[in-house]
């Protein structure tokens, strides 16, 4: 009888600290994606990169014919020179009128008119400077480059095509860090917590396993999957995981151990 009690005590102790794995499935998703759009309207001259190409920051993705934009800069430079010359004349006239007014050789009304003309000339120069700045920016936008390292996942433009400002040209995705969206059942959701360690592997390569921790746990049931979303981020410097891969995950959860760890 005594031996039975000892055995039952050992079994109870083991059960009180037993742990069990929570198995989850899901997919990898890209965390950083950027849409490359045309900032100006024009004809695409060079667009050689295809889907799957690896690009780095500053890589030229496409060029838009720059001739019209170069001509616009020349036009705005000439216009600026013209209005600056007019400003010089208006400034000189105002200075002369002010001297005459100080000698009471000119009416106040004539001086006020000269001052208004001078103010208008200054405003015209400011506008011309803005137009020239815009023309130079537009010329810079004809060279379309990548603003992050990544892979081209979508190409929406062809050589020789006309594009309008805002048209999508490429989509570039960085997969150095991936988001893993797992699905937890109503039964399993109570056994998971933010910060909990979790082991992840791709269905296509179960030998390659990485460890991470749970970043977010959804509080609302997804009506499409009838499961709760659980999100994990994984570092992927060698790009062995790709967006869209089927993922399996496993985490050890011990209710009693967790409860004991929350004790003061």
UniProtKB/TrEMBL annotation:
This is Efflux RND transporter periplasmic adaptor subunit. Belongs to the membrane fusion protein (MFP) (TC 8.A.1) family. Keywords: Coiled coil, Signal. It holds the Pfam family HH_MFP_RND. Residues 75-142 form the Multidrug resistance protein MdtA-like alpha-helical hairpin domain. Gene3D superfamilies: 2.40.30.170, 2.40.50.100, Helix hairpin bin. Residues 66-110 form a coiled coil. The keyword Coiled coil applies. The keyword Membrane does not apply. InterPro entries: Beta-barrel_RND_2, MdtA-like_BSH, MdtA-like_HH, RND_pump_MFP. Residues 34-169 form the Multidrug resistance protein MdtA-like barrel-sandwich hybrid domain. Residues 1-21 form the signal peptide. Residues 185-253 form the CusB-like beta-barrel domain.
């Amino acid at each position: 009888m005594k031996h039975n009690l000892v055995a039952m005590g050992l079994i109870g102790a083991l059960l009180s600290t037993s742990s069990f794995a929570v198995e989850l499935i899901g997919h990898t998703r890209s965390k950083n994606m950027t849409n490359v759009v045309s900032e100006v309207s024009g004809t695409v001259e060079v667009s050689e990169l295809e889907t799957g190409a690896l690009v780095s920051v500053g890589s030229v993705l496409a060029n838009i014919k720059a001739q019209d934009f170069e001509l616009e800069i020349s036009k705005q430079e000439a216009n600026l020179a013209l209005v600056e010359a007019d400003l010089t004349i208006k400034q000189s006239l105002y200075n002369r009128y002010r001297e005459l007014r100080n000698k009471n050789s000119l009416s106040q009304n004539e001086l006020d008119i000269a001052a208004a003309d001078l103010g208008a000339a200054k405003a015209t120069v400011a506008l011309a400077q803005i137009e020239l700045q815009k023309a130079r920016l537009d010329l810079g936008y004809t060279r379309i480059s990548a603003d992050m390292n990544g892979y081209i996942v979508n190409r929406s433009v062809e050589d020789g095509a006309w594009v309008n400002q805002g048209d999508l040209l490429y989509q570039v995705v960085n997969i150095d860090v991936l988001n893993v969206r797992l699905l937890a059942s109503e039964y399993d959701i109570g056994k998971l917590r933010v910060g909990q360690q979790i082991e992840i592997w791709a269905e296509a390569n179960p030998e390659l396993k990485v460890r991470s921790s749970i970043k977010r746990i959804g509080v609302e049931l997804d009506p499409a999957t009838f499961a709760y979303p659980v999100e994990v981020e994984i570092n992927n410097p060698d790009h062995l995981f790709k967006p869209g891969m089927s993922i399996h995950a496993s985490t050890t959860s011990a209710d009693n151990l967790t409860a004991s760890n929350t004790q003061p």
